[in-house]
Design goal:
128 residues; 4 strands
Length: 128
C-alpha cells in the first residue's frame, strides 16, 4: 500500500505539511474504503460504528451511526477529528457547525464493546 501523504510528510522543507491532515485523511479514506466498498459495508458500518462530533458554539455532542452516502460518511469522519488548526477548521455538517468530537466527549463509552482510541501520548492508555 502506498500513500502519497507519507511521501509529503517525509519531504524536507514542506512547512505546510502539518496543515494538510484533512486532505490526507480524505485521500486515505478514498484509497482504503472508497464509494464501492462503503456501499457494500454501509449496513455493517451503521450497526457497528458510532462517530461523535461536537456542535459549536455550545459544545453539544452529536452522535452519528447512519450515513446517507459515502460523501456524508467522509464528512462525518472529518468532522469527528477536526483539531484546529492542524486538521482543519470547523465546518457545516447537516446545517450545523461541527468540530472534533473530543471537545464534547473526550473518550466516548457506549457499552462494554466500545473501542476508544486516544491520539495523545500523555494519556495512560492508547487503546482500551
Amino acid at each position: 500500500m502506498h500513500w502519497k501523504c507519507l511521501q509529503d510528510v517525509r519531504s524536507p522543507g514542506l512547512l505546510s505539511t502539518p496543515f494538510q491532515l484533512r486532505k490526507y485523511k480524505t485521500d486515505i479514506a478514498d484509497e482504503m474504503l472508497g464509494p464501492a466498498r462503503f456501499l457494500s459495508n454501509q449496513s455493517k458500518l451503521s450497526e457497528q460504528l458510532e462517530v461523535v462530533v461536537t456542535v459549536l458554539p455550545r459544545c453539544h455532542t452529536l452522535r452519528y451511526s447512519k450515513y446517507r452516502n459515502y460523501e456524508h460518511f467522509k464528512d462525518v469522519m472529518l468532522a469527528s477529528c477536526t483539531a484546529s488548526p492542524i486538521a482543519g477548521f470547523p465546518f457545516l455538517l447537516d446545517g450545523q457547525i461541527c468540530a472534533d468530537g473530543g471537545l464534547s466527549d473526550f473518550q466516548p463509552l457506549i457499552d462494554e464493546n466500545t473501542v476508544s482510541i486516544s491520539p495523545f501520548y500523555f494519556h495512560w492508555y492508547v487503546l482500551k
